[in-house]
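thought: fold this chain, then report.
action: predict
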Amino acid sequence: MGRDALTGITPASRMKITSIEPQKKRRGRMNLYADGEFLVGVAADTLIRFGLRKGDEITPATLGAIERAEELLGAKTAAMRLLGVRPRTVREIRDALREKEFADDVAAETISALSASGLLDDAAFARAYIRNTLALRPAGSIFLKRKLLQLGVDRAVADEAVGEVLGGIDQADAAARAAEKFLARKRRRPAGERRLAGQLVEFLLRRGYAWEIAREASRRAMKGEFGEGEDL
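observation:
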């Protein structure tokens, strides 16, 4: 339930709104009183949407509609806070709303509205995630797909995004550049040639390059570093 759900009052007949007062601690929220008793706290926007004024009669059906509107508003507000920090996947938003104890149907309707407005888009998220990751450090398709799946992106969407973004990138060349940077860092802490070659392959595999690409990039980098050296 949202924070300002109904208090449990279930009127059997119409009641009259006797007072509408602003909440002291929460700006933009109002307290509704019916027949002289507190009825419900609502957002000012909800008040305007339902056209509620002092003296109006309010029915159980209207109360139910207000409660639903408040739930949806609370869920959207919570989702927008998360999206304001960084882009999110649909699953991330759904999981967050469940943690905040919003009902599944409220979460689903909120996600549908955010998706329709373009604020939630797993395909766009996946492409942006890949580009941002590559801007920071080398990464192969295996690594990128695994990360996207962990974030809740559908496998088909992840595959398409990786293919689109990496389509113009030669994975062998990218792995070779990553291997050269790895060796440049390792020069500060010399290690045996065979041990270093093993560390290099492991590094490239962790960054998501296929075994064949990692092995060849390591061989090329080690050859440039030590000459012919030993076969890996």
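thought: worth noting. The two ends are 60 Å apart (CA to CA).
final: tokens above.
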